[in-house]
Design a protein that fits this description.
- The protein is an alpha/beta fold.
- It folds into 3 domains: about 100 residues, no CATH class; about 375 residues, Glycogen Phosphorylase B (Rossmann fold), CATH 3.40.50; about 250 residues, Rossmann fold, CATH 3.40.50.2000.
- It is about 50% helix and about 15% strand.
- It contains 33 helices and 24 strands.
- A 9-stranded mixed sheet has the order 7-10-11-4-1-12-13-17-18, sandwiched between helices. It has a 6-stranded parallel sheet with strand order 21-20-19-22-23-24, with helices on both faces.
- Helix 11 crosses helix 14.
- The chain is globular and about 85 Å long.
- Bound molecules: pyridoxal-5'-phosphate.
- Pyridoxal-5'-phosphate binds next to helix 6, helix 24 and helix 25.
Length: about 800
């Protein structure tokens, strides 16, 4: 056929399919379609293609009788999915062109896809990176979590104060998911247990609801495999009590449905009330029970014999939130499959692995025993029985005395009795892993020292990773193209191949192009910040970035106080050759965390004062970017020159933000904490800026009776900055606002801000000096990119697969 049409008016078959989807599935024609309709039509069209790969993946796993990996996590911080799916399927250009022929800009509709904010921070993002790597490595896997209707709150700043708003990510529906009405599981709460230890035990819950599955496809790199993220929603067992409704109690008749909906409403309901605590425990049991029932059902369907479960299912607990799964599997094995307790325990231990994410004592989950027993009476019995067994083993083990027995016990007997979820997870798993080398070492030495003595082969390390698809190829296309130009495309399939870039660190022309890419990313971010916040940034300044949850151990306060000190220095010595700097901060504070919220307000107050002070002459700009989430991270990280990873040593389990920044060519200023240590080992001491106390030194200082007041008195710069903040220089509308926060530094300073200040400030001045040497800086940045391929989550998942799950 010959055609006179120009390429722009030729519609591809793909464009026709998108229009077809628009008409038949959304019910609009091209003229009526709005951006959201195009987004939905594009996703649905793509999803139709993904489904075939998805089913093929499931069939292949079934045919091979493959062992499956089950990743249980209360959080999946997956962010937007369209760009991810397009990129992994290699369909970016084709879909972009098809949409262009319809007058639609792909980049524009990608931007309006809501961020699936089903997580809070690193732990949830890790789960998302792991899901992508599991599919990429062609491992059959399911992620299990909760389909929160509102998820994590959206953050707005009102005059610098954090305001929490509901995240309405489902407002336009969710074209990615499939509701599986047929996959419903009965979830009970409360009631009573009948029968004896020897006879048939029956749990008769007083309350019940249904868990309904929603499945989202997870596409691996190059579309090799598509796995399932299965998120549970709740539905009332009796949606309406018709008798009550007919009797005129219209609201009361619907209370069951309201209770079910409350269960899946938000991530981390405030636990400052006992009702909030109870809701949280209900959420944990709800998704654990649904997931374990689903795993057992699938196993019986495919393999018939429940005894082979550990050969065919590896269940990983992402922190202790799903730890009640251990008791739930025991319940199903003992009460429903009628196995002996000992056999059930053997199966359970072989099936589970547990990942620990924190050593902070206040973050180790435990539940008041009366609450646990009231909500889950049968599980409480089983936990007592498990505990008796574990403590018998402990007593038979040499060197374990009464104090160690008390620490190993699943029940905390000191004060109000509580159920310790970390001990349950530890006892019920064959593998317990930390998430960076230092963290794993500290697990052995501190919180789990006694359990480690009892089960010395159980603790192992799996240093975290990030998916280089989202965190390089998708978020930084210009850098990706530049790397491809230099070393060819192999690094896209194997991040360790980035190593070949090392030899370009001394190549003047490559450095130049690398600098140009970074600058264009900084221009892009500056435009965003100008538009959204009205703050003008100089793209030639050093972009110094700290984005992460706001927490005292992460020490945003150290960064802000140093910023104040620098501001003071610039004003006192305007004649000096200061390095122009942009300080960017972002992150959410837990809604009940007073100091974290005050730190956000301080950042905003400091920014307001500095940005409007003509005497700094634009040498220093500060911005707190609201509503930090995955999409914002994808915009900010490629534009960063300096990555702030400055936690008190020993307190950040791993960090993954640190890895994302290094992969995008930022230098790290950081403490010897978490994965920073391993990043240093990979990039080399010359290409990272390390400061501050080590974990051992922090511990020793605390033991010796640390006196922060002396540290403050001993540092003129620190004292000046702290006193300026305390006296209201940055809060003239409320001069006492920061007095308490600053007094806290003088009095206890648990996070060692004062102890590390001078070292940090000196490190920052060394950064200034390095920045002046543009070639040197770029060379170091290139060496970072070249040497952090090891932090790919493909490497991490490979290690889990071999060492823990036995699937590779
Ligand atoms: C990577 C990431 C985190 C974790 O950052 P850390 O610096 O390791 O705490 C948190 N939130 C989002 C949105 C992320 O992408």
């Amino acid at each position: 056929m010959t055609s006179e049409a120009t390429p722009a008016t030729v519609r591809s078959a793909l464009a026709d399919r998108i229009v077809d989807t628009l008409i038949h599935r959304i019910g609009k024609d091209e003229r009526a379609a709005r951006k959201h309709d195009w987004l939905e039509a594009t996703i649905l069209t793509l999803r139709d293609e993904i489904i075939h790969k998805w089913m093929a993946s499931t069939r292949a796993a079934h045919a091979a009788g493959a062992k499956r990996v089950y990743y249980l996590s209360l959080e999946f911080l997956i962010g937007r999915l369209l760009r991810d799916a397009l990129s992994n399927l290699g369909r970016n250009e084709e879909v972009g062109e098809a949409l262009a022929s319809l007058g639609v800009d792909l980049a524009e509709i990608e931007e309006i896809e809501p961020d699936a904010a089903l997580g809070n921070g690193g732990l949830g993002r890790l789960a998302a990176c792991f899901m992508e790597s599991l599919a990429t490595l062609d491992l059959p896997a399911y992620g299990y979590g909760i389909r929160y209707v509102n998820g994590m709150f959206r953050q707005r700043l009102d005059d610098g104060w954090q305001v929490e708003l509901p995240e309405t990510w489902l407002a336009h529906g969710n074209p990615w998911e499939f509701e599986r009405r047929e996959s419903a599981y009965f979830i009970g709460f409360g009631g009573e247990v009948t029968g004896s230890e020897t006879g048939q035990v029956r749990w008769k819950p007083a309350e019940a609801l249904d868990a309904i599955a929603y499945d989202t496809p997870v596409v691996g790199w190059r579309g090799k495999r598509v796995n399932t993220l299965r998120l549970w929603s709740a539905r009332a067992f009796d949606p309406i009590r018709l008798d009550a409704f007919n009797a005129g109690d219209h609201i009361g008749a619907l209370a069951g449905q309201a209770r079910a909906e409350a269960l899946v409403r938000v991530l981390y309901p405030s636990d400052s009330s006992s009702a909030g605590q109870e809701l949280r425990l209900r959420q944990e049991y709800f998704f654990s029970s649904a997931s374990i029932q689903d795993i057992v059902r699938r196993h019986i369907q495919y393999f018939k014999d429940i005894r082979t479960l550990p050969d065919k299912a590896a269940i990983q607990l992402n922190d202790t939130h799903p730890a009640v799964s251990v008791a739930e599997l025991m319940r199903l094995l003992v009460d429903h499959h009628e196995l002996s307790f000992d056999e059930a325990w053997d199966i359970t231990r072989r099936a589970f692995g547990y990942t620990n994410h924190t050593l902070l004592p206040e973050a180790l989950e435990s539940w008041p025993l009366p609450l646990f027993e009231r909500l889950l009476p049968r599980h409480m019995q089983l936990i007592y029985a498990i505990n008796a067994k574990v403590l018998r083993e402990a007593r038979r083990t040499a060197g374990i005395g009464d104090q160690a027995i008390a620490a190993i016990s699943l029940i905390d007997e000191g004060g109000e009795r509580r159920v310790r979820m970390a001990n349950l997870a530890f006892a019920g798993s064959h593998s317990v892993n930390g998430v960076a080398a230092l963290h794993t070492e500290l697990m052995k030495q501190t919180v789990f020292s006694d359990l480690h003595r009892l089960y010395p082969d159980r603790i192992n390390n799996k240093t975290n990773g990030i998916t280089p698809r989202r965190w390089l190829l998708e978020c930084n296309p210009c850098l990706t193209a530049l790397i491809r130009d230099a070393i060819g495309p192999d690094f896209q399939d194997d991040a360790s191949k980035l190593k070949a870039l090392e030899s370009f660190a001394n190549d003047a022309s490559f450095r130049e192009r690398f600098g140009a890419v970074k600058r264009s990313n900084k221009v892009g971010l500056s435009n965003y910040i100008k538009e959204s916040m009205g703050v003008a940034l100089d793209p030639d300044a050093l972009f110094d970035v700290q984005i992460k949850r706001i927490h005292e151990y992460k020490r945003q306060l150290l960064n802000i106080i140093e910023t104040v000190a620098l501001y003071d220095q610039i004003r006192s010595h305007p004649e000096k050759d200061w390095t122009p700097r942009v300080k960017l901060l972002g992150g959410k504070a837990a809604s009940s965390y007073h100091n974290a919220k005050l730190i956000i307000k301080l950042a905003a107050d400091v920014a307001k004062r500095i940005n409007s002070d003509p005497s700094v002459g634009g040498l220093l700009k500060v911005a707190f970017v609201p509503n930090y989430n995955v999409s914002l991270a994808e915009g900010i990280i490629p534009a960063a020159d300096l990555s702030e990873q400055i936690s008190t040593a020993g307190m950040e389990a791993s960090g993954t933000g640190n890895m994302k920044f290094a992969l995008n060519g930022a230098l790290t200023i950081g403490t010897l904490d978490g994965a920073n240590i391993e990043i240093k080992d990979h990039v080399g001491d010359e290409n990272i800026i390390i400061f501050g106390l080590t974990a051992d030194e922090v511990a020793a200082k605390r033991a010796d009776g640390y006196r922060p007041r002396d540290a403050i008195e001993g540092s003129a710069e620190l004292k000046q900055a702290v006193n300026a903040i305390a006296s209201g220089v940055f809060s003239p509308d409320d001069p006492g606002r920061y007095q308490g926060l600053m007094n806290g530094l003088y009095d206890h300073d648990w996070f060692m801000v004062a102890a590390d200040f001078d070292s940090y400030a000196a490190a920052q001045r060394s950064v200034d000096a390095r920045w002046a040497d543009k070639d040197g800086w770029r060379g170091a940045a290139i060496r970072n990119v070249a040497n952090v391929g090891w932090f790919s989550s493909d490497r991490t998942i490979g290690e889990y697969a071999r060492d823990i799950w036995g699937v590779m």
